[in-house]
């Protein structure tokens, strides 16, 4: 007879990819992230423009006792003042008027004071110190006759880094060193949170709609679990391939019209780190898929299972909050500790390996612990599945689980 | 000697401190319709689940065609669970063909059989609809289809009439009767005792996981009746007493009390030999429903 897990895998795969929600998530998630990024980028540019052009103020009086600012720069809305008190009265009368006083010793202390009404433009007043600094700086630069100095002060510096590898070979370093970690993290998040989410949905829905017993009368529990994992792995690859094809297409279209702001040399990506990353992503998927099977089986329904699974999701994303520490000190005690805590180990090892910070000994230990965690998670998931999948109106208690784990192989 | 499709020997199962089934033994012969009766929590579902290895038995042997259940037997077993339901967001045809493929039928044949079944139960126009779009009655028809699609030799049905409307109940009865006539072995648990009396060849009654009654429907009824025979006669009265019985005769009726180890067949033969013109010949057996209620008290 044909292996049933293959039928289960095929069914799970087709069931998921036939759903509109799957394609909405697959196609619109990157689009949504892109739109958010674009809006955020455009608003940053707009904000920068606002900083340069303080259009929200009708008049900005500047008291400048040392004549730091070149008088030629005073064009509306900027206006030089020598009468601070009179200017203050004008500020009191009009919320669009601002007074800036530079200190008597500005060349040394670079201190300025701002006066405006409480109901003045909130964002405009927040940006005002930067605006005045830029204004003063531009005035100062205008006094310099050497165009080279002006270029140094105004221009955007570029730099190139070279590194020596273990063999002493010189290699050009660039933005591409961040590509592998970023790509690995994206794939890891997808596999853990999206694909294992599908797993949770599949198991809990099967239990909730009572189809589980019909299926279990035909397929044994291991085959059902394995089939589901295989099917949802296929879903993950479909999602990845779709994103890759779209991403490549968009990259090609963009590159034909524009050039990248940061030059990327794809030949410079260290692919030797890739096999371990793929291994960790695969193991991470299996680990969290097993957890989702367990929580799906013991929950009383889809909602209950989702609530249960959120505990594990929170634990797994914990390293994200400590990312800065992990990057600054990838071989520090916290990084090492999190590398061997089951729920965080896959992500932390992935981050450390992506930046080439994983020593060989730890790499070997990491591979071993990952395999152990996956085997233990699978074993527990199977036991939870056996115990909970036909328990329809309640969760099995911890005592029941322990009792069940102690049961020896039955006499058949 | 009868060949047994299902044989359960000294089967026991406990859940923690609860003894769900204790030392249960019974056999279901090839081609037999066998009713498995008991109140809620009596151990029927546990027995069926252990038979199909959904649960693991603690002790005993549970055999189907002489073997423990394995995926190899999938192609000859149809199972309808008590806790039933279907994928809500999958089409009718996909569910039927999926369960057929899981039973080892190739994809084309699975599709063909699914369409045939849907045509038979009047759901062919709904084949592409999702289950959630069907009425409860239609869903029940699809559910039964998942158990029958591969034309199984052995049908195991846990409370098949539970939650059925009268129309679907009759459909289930007709389909199962048809399967029984074609030689399928049917083991079904039920609360609907009248249906069991009509359909079953033999039965088992359990209470708290312990066997209370086992045998043919009439054997079980006879064990709970007086064994007296009531007759109506048209010509002369039967003898008041002979080697087989003692009779209490009133006008054109008589109550015959059989002597020890005398069967109703022997008495009937004797009456006919006496030349008694029988209008009716009734055994004083309680209905199966009465037996069930009496046992469960």
Describe this entry's structure for a reader.
- The complex is a heterodimer of chains A (412) and B (297).
- Chain A has 412 residues and is of the alpha/beta class.
- Chain A is built from 16 helices and six strands.
- Chain A has two domains: 52-146, 3-Layer(aba) Sandwich (D-Maltodextrin-Binding Protein, domain 2); 176-406, no CATH class.
- Chain A has a four-stranded mixed β-sheet with strand order 2-1-3-4, covered by helices on one side.
- Mean pLDDT of chain A is 82; it is low at 408-412.
- The radius of gyration of chain B is 23 Å and the shape is elongated.
- In chain B, α2 packs across α3 and α2 runs parallel beside α4 (136-148).
- Chain B contains nine helices and 13 strands.
- The mean pLDDT of chain B is 88.
- Chain B is an alpha/beta fold.
- Chain B starts with a strand and ends with a helix.
- Chain B has two domains: 4-221, Rossmann fold, CATH 3.40.50.300; 226-285, Alpha-Beta Plaits (2-Layer Sandwich).
- In chain B, the strands form three sheets. In chain B, strands 5-6-7-3-8-9 form a six-stranded mixed β-sheet, sandwiched between helices. A four-stranded antiparallel β-sheet of chain B has the order 11-12-10-13, with helices on one face.
- At the A-B interface, α1 and α8 of A face β5 and α2 of B.
